[in-house]
Each structure stands twice: as structure tokens, then as C-alpha cells.
Amino acid sequence: MDFDSFVLAASIADLAAEADAREHADAVEFRMDLAADPLAALDDYDGDLPVLATNRVEWEGGEAADDEARVEALCDAAAHPAVAAVDVELAAIAAGDGRAAVEAAREEDATAVVSVHDFEETPPRAELARLLEQAREFGDVGKLAVTARSRGDVLRLLALTHAQTEAGHAVATMAMGEAGRHSRAVAPVYGSRIGYAPVDPADATAPGQYDLRTLRRLVSDLG
Ligand SMILES: O=C1C[C@@](O)(C(=O)O)C[C@@H](O)[C@@H]1O
User: Which Gene3D superfamilies does this one have (predicted)?
Assistant: First the structure.
């Protein structure tokens, strides 16, 4: 899966939900950290949509313990034929252990999405740019999910998304929280390559997400 154009990923903890996502999604984000036995689930997967594998660590909003097994599982997932991309946190790469997952992705011709999350705020423009550039340095796609508290926060993120896209870089951005919700529909207009949405709103994996059907409609209407 290349991310040359926008990819709408249905965020799911149970790969069986792919059947419900297929109509509106381009891919599924398999939240391995929310699944009971993620590698067995991948072995059993017989869906059509390509899988973006995420094993989100607890200090970055997920439920996976920060141990070797987490990164190993991500490396194993990268080798799975259905897995077209893996998500690795920039902070895990900086800590050292995340590099193995990027390397595993490269070996398997999978895309490495390197991500940064800020659950508190939207940092100033220079800091946003620094984070996204670092993420791009290690990954094929640099991803930045911040928390917006105002429209100004969203504008800053959109302006950066636009600038990076104009410069030819592959980035994915979104502002979490209520104030950032519209960014999920609008950021793709400015070049963001990935959107995330739960099939059922009750299964949201981040604050402010639209459900899948709604986000597909909004992105299509705006695009
Ligand atoms: O990193 C991201 C983005 C996200 O946090 C969001 O804001 O939509 C949702 C997560 O499932 C995904 O791994």
C-alpha cells in the first residue's frame, strides 16, 4: 500500500470487523494492543483490506506494555502478507527499540508510518515542524496527532500539513479532541495521507474521531 493519496483506515481491535469496514475504508488499522491474541488473529485474517499494524505503547495512548514483546509482535506482524504498513512511535525509535520495527517493515516491503502523539496540546509551529520532520526522517510517512483546544491550533497544524505536502513529503496529521474534530475531514484537503475512524463510534480509538461512514462522506464531499 503506498500512501501517495489519502488512505482511510478503519481502526479496529478485532479483524473480523473488516467485513463491516470494507464498504467505506481503504485499509484497516489493526490495533494489536487492544486485541487478545493479535498474531493469531492476523494468521486467521481473510479480509480484503490491507492492514496497517499498530501496537500502541501505553505511554503514547495505547494499551501495550513497553517491553520487548511489543516490538517483536510488530516485527512479526510486518512479515505477515496482509500487513502493508506498520506504525512505530518516534519516541520508541528515539529510545532505540522502535528501530527494529522500521527495519522489519523495510525488509518486508511494508510502509513504515512513524508517529507522534500529543494528548495535551498543539505545540508551536516550529516544534510541530521539528516533530514531523523527525518522523519523516525515519518513516515513509510522518504522522502527527495533536490535541487542539482552539481553531488556531488546528490552523497551525493544517498550515504545516500544507507546507510539508507542497514540499513533496508524505505526512498524516490530525487534531484530536472536540476542537480538532473538523481537522479529520479537512486535513486530507491539505495533503494528509491517512485518516482513522472507528466503524462504530463507541469503539473510537482517539478523542474526536468521526465514525467511518461519516468521515468517508466528509472526505469525499470535500475532496
Ligand atoms: O495514531 C493514531 C491516530 C489516532 O490517534 C487518531 O487520532 O485518529 C487513532 C489511532 O488509532 C491511531 O493509531
Answer: Aldolase class I
